Amino acid sequence: MNLHEKWMSEALAEAGLAAEKGEVPVGCVIVKDGAVIGRGHNLRETDRRAIAHGEVLAIENACRTLGSWRLDGCDLYVTLEPCTMCAGAILQSRISRVFYGAADPGEGAVCGIARLFDLPYKNRPDYEGGVLAAECQALLDGFFSEKRGKNPAKSR
């Protein structure tokens, strides 16, 4: 297991916590100097807040840890390609690199419906998609199959 897979596994663990709460299983960790400084998973239904996405919560947690809103030198790992809101929060917090698992062609703002990190912002992160993509996608597929009352094992 390489370093990116290690950190994405941590994000997958966060996504599992979201799924246990009936939330869409998206998890996120923020890493600086080889240590996790922020964690989050979706809590929109639990908290009844539209902005309670895993990335936003992890960014808030990392900011508290560092005592600063500037997250330069930090890497963000998230199980699903960030949406426009989360991509905006990533840009505003000055995160240096973003790694995501599953692509989101319909809502994603990195390589999906929009490409916000390719615009000429002053502080924009490097990014890479597809880290443990199969595992991230399987978690999402299983969650939505269960929500729709389908057994993923039977539909194969």
Care to describe what's here?
This protein is an alpha/beta fold and 156 residues long. It contains five helices and five strands. A five-stranded mixed β-sheet has the order 2-1-3-4-5. Helix 1 (3-20) runs parallel beside helix 5 (133-147). It is globular.
Topology:
Elements (H helix, E strand, L loop, with lengths): L2 H18 L6 E6 L2 E7 L2 H4 L6 H13 L8 E6 L3 H10 L3 E6 L23 E4 L3 H15 L9
Parallel strand pairs: 3-4, 4-5
Antiparallel strand pairs: 1-2, 1-3
Helix pairs in contact: 1-5
Provide a brief overview of the structure.
The protein has 156 residues and is of the alpha/beta class. It has helices at 3-20, 44-47, 54-66, 84-93, 133-147, and strands at 27-32, 35-41, 75-80, 97-102, 126-129. It contains 5 helices and 5 strands; from the N terminus they run αββααβαββα.
| Topology pattern, helix = H, strand = E | HEEHHEHEEH
Tally of strands = 5
What does the main sheet amount to?
A: 5 strands, mixed
Q: What general outline do the C-alpha atoms trace?
A: globular
The largest beta-sheet arranges its strands as 2-1-3-4-5
**Which structural class do you get from the secondary structure elements?**
alpha/beta
Helix content: 25-40%
Radius of gyration: 15 Å
Quote the distance from N terminus to C terminus: 28 Å
Instruction: Please report which band the strand proportion falls in: under 5%, 5-15%, 15-25%, 25-35%, 35-45% or over 45%.
Output: 15-25%
The tally of helices reads 5
Low-confidence stretches: none
Mean pLDDT over the residues: 95
